[in-house]
Design brief:
A hairpin with a 5-residue loop joins strand 1 (about 85-90) and strand 2 (about 95-100). This protein has helices spanning about 1-25, 30-40, 40-55, 55-65, 65-80; strands spanning about 85-90, 95-100. It has a two-stranded antiparallel ribbon. The longest helix is centred in the N-terminal third of the chain and has 22 residues, at about 1-25. Helix content is about 65%, strand content about 10%. The protein starts with a helix and ends in a 9-residue tail after the last strand.
Length: about 110
């Protein structure tokens, strides 16, 4: 994940940096305006890069949306019935595994 964000940062900001060093940072230059526009895409691209490559970021994002977090909680609570294992992801991103065990006979 961090490699994709770093690569996007370099690719989007390197052209404006090189052009600015060679020709100066003149705002009347149309090429410089286009390169600045490309450079401003970087923060928006970071959100998508984190969303598609980071499972913890994606889970935290869905937990922060009230309309989606309630559906995910209901789905997790339904899967825990019947002695099956249930896996839920907390807000910190760590996985909690709950396992209900039922014994059919007396044990000793």
């Amino acid at each position: 994940m961090i490699l994709s964000v770093t690569f996007a940062f370099i690719v989007l900001l390197l052209p404006v940096s090189i052009y600015g060093i060679i020709n100066g940072h003149e705002f009347n230059d149309p090429t410089m305006a286009i390169l600045y526009s490309i450079a401003t895409i970087n923060p928006a691209a970071n959100f998508y890069l984190y969303f598609f490559s980071g499972r913890l970021f994606r889970n935290a994002f869905f937990e922060s949306l009230p309309c989606l977090s309630s559906k995910r909680k209901k789905k997790n609570s339904r899967s825990s019935k019947g002695g099956k294992s249930s896996v839920s992801v907390s807000k910190t991103g760590f996985t909690d595994v709950e396992k209900s065990t039922s014994t059919a006979g007396g044990g000793g």
